[in-house]
Amino acid sequence: MTRAAFGTAIACVAALAAPAWGEVGSASGSASGSASGSGARVVQLPVDIAAPSVSAAASPTVVRLGAHFTLYVTATFAAGVEVNLREPVVLGPAFEVRRRLSEDRPAGADRTTREWQFDVMPWELGELQLAPIAITFTAFGRAGQLQTNAVPMKIIGDLGDLVDDPRALRGLARPAGLWTRDWLWIWIATATGAAAGVVASALWIARRRRRRAMPPGAAGFARPVRVDMTGERALEQLLAIERSGVLDRDADRKAGYAEMVEVIRDYLAQRYRIAIHDRTSSELIDRLQSVAPADELAGLGGVRAWLAGCDLVKYSGARVTPAEAGKALDDARALIVTTTPQHPGERRTEAA
After folding, report:
1. CATH for 48-157, options being 3.40.50.11720, 1.10.10.60, 2.60.40.10, 1.10.230.10
2. N or C: less crowded end of the chain, CB within 10 Å?
């Protein structure tokens, strides 16, 4: 509302109240000066005449599952009006707000536009809607509330989008010959391998003493035959952390722990399809226990112990050596391997 329009509204309200003021003045004069000015009316301006204009929009509106998009919420208001978001901001059960920021910019004629930007991640597929957002405002010493429009979204994510990608297909190749099995050479190779294995095991133990055993949840199983795409991506991220050398440098080791924790938290969110934003480690484990299959609940104890150890380094400033950091990295890999579901026809092997 411009200053001229606001002044016109004040004048109209004053005109409506003029007869009442005239009657008060007549009564005061006839009373010969006694109680002069008493009984004057106070006109309350309606708060709606200063209500801001609000809107909401998203970019993009077609998003893949697990990707991010930005929600824009704007409110344009006149001078003397205060606006804010009503907390907490709830967009619906299918959306998670990761972070947000806001800025003000002039809109001309003594008006200001305030814009909030939300980084949002969807967790469900289909045609969805972002719920309207409540915006509160105050004017003339009174408070009011408005709601933005709902924002339609389309969340996609089909297996065919990955499998049917022509770039992911192998080209044609000529048939390859197959080797026939010769049991004699297998026995020879087994005997040789056993002898070499004793020597290799001794060297490996001496060189890798700093590495500890798998966490309790992994003790009952050998590694799976295959690791799926979610596990492979997490293992590649851990390998990148190891190759960067961040865990070997005293000044950067705390940051390396934070990177490892973020990889595991994102892996668990993708594996079990849960939201992890603003959840503490204990809250994350409690949530996992409510959604994980019964045969995977035993492994969650190892996840809890690993996160607790990393939190000591992240938040309490506990000092660790490069060897201890290497053990934490190996344990992170073990957690990924032992929580990866097995493909049909495969099974975990009981450890001796």
Report:
1. 2.60.40.10
2. C
How many residues make up the chain in this entry?
352
58-115 residue pLDDT tens: 999 999 887 889 999 998 988 888 898 888 888 888 898 888 888 888 988 888 999 9
Place of tokens 């990148």: 240
| CA distances to 147, 233, 329 from 242, in Å | 49, 15, 8
Give the pair of three-digit tokens for residue 270: 């993708």
Closest Cα to residue 45, out of 82, 17, 83?
17
CA–CA distance, 156 with 148 (Å, rounded to integer): 25
Beta bridge partners of 82: 138
Helices (H) and strands (E) counted in the chain, each on its own, are 8, 10
pTM (predicted TM-score): 0.36
Which residues on neighbouring strands pair with residue 111, listed in sequence order? 78, 108
